[in-house]
Structures are given as structure tokens and as C-alpha cells.
Amino acid sequence: MSDSGTIGGRAYRERHSSGGLWEQEYGYSRAIRVGRQVLVAGCTSMVDGRVHYPSDPAAQLRVAIETVLDALAALGAGPDDVVRTRMYVTHRRDCDAVGRVHAEYFGATPPVATMVIVSGLLHPDMRVEIEVDAVLAQDTSA
After folding, report:
1. How far is 91 from 36, CA to CA, in rounded Å?
2. pTM
3. By the 8 A CB rule, do 44 and 140 touch?
4. CA 28 to CA 32: how far, in whole Å?
């Protein structure tokens, strides 16, 4: 679901909701497009109220990146438009597996990236979270 606002008939912001468990409850959008920029909130392997692949960080990242790609597509962007990723990983031993999955999706046009080891995520079975910033080559929102 997407919505947008206008100023003088010109679109200035478009929001996308994936219908995720906490989006409405916690008051955030899955993604927002402002002009050429698309910002995607942190995505995990939580789908339909459950964490998928609790013991497999690589599979969790694949689920999370598919959520990212859906949000980007809803706002007119794709993986080649991604310029920055931030990955939050709960175990140092998972970094290589997570990094390899990141390369599967973004290796053709590598963005700048950060991977941080964190003490935990919102649900104890979550092992990785990713957030993404994208910039389109030209503004097509008008």
C-alpha cells in the first residue's frame, strides 16, 4: 500500500507499507520516497507475524532483502539504485554468510555498506536486519 502527498499538484513524498506487524503499531513506514531518494526501514525475516529461518542468518537476510526489493519496486526503484546498506548482525560468526548473501543481491552494482554486530534485535530469533537507501538516476515522481 502506498500513499503520497502533493504541494501545488506536485508529489513530494510517497510512503509504502508492507503491512508488517509493527509498522502501524510503532508508527513508521516500510519505505518513503522523496524525489529521487528511497529510504527503506530495517527489514528482517519476520513475515506474517513469525520469524522465518531462526537458525539461518543467510536465509533470514534473503527474506529481508526480498522485503526491501518489494518496497523499492513499489516506489519505482530497484537493486541497481541502492547506494547504501546497513546490516545489523547478532553474532560475529554470521558475518561471512550475511556478507555473501548481500553480494548475491547487490554485488553487480555494489553500494557502500556497513555491518555492525549488535547485542540483539526486536525478536530473539532474529539474527540479521538490513536497511537500505536508494537514489534514482532521475526524479520521476512529478
Report:
1. 35
2. 0.86
3. no
4. 10
**pLDDT tens, position by position, 5-62:** 544 455 568 887 777 777 777 877 889 999 999 999 999 999 988 999 999 999 999 9
β-pairing, 37-43 vs 31-34, is antiparallel
Whole-number Å distance between alpha carbons of 113 and 86: 6
Task: Write out the DSSP string of the chain.
Answer: -EEEEEETTEEEEEEE----TTHHHHT--SEEEETTEEEEEEE-SEETTEES-TT-HHHHHHHHHHHHHHHHHHTT--GGGEEEEEEEES-GGGHHHHHHHHHHHHTTSPPEEEEEE-S--SSTT--EEEEEEEE-SS----
Q: Are 130 and 85 in contact (CB under 8 A)?
A: yes
Question: Which residues 6+ apart lie within 8 Å of 126 measured at CB?
Answer: 44, 45, 46, 51, 60, 90
How confident is the model at residue 141, as a pLDDT? Answer: 54
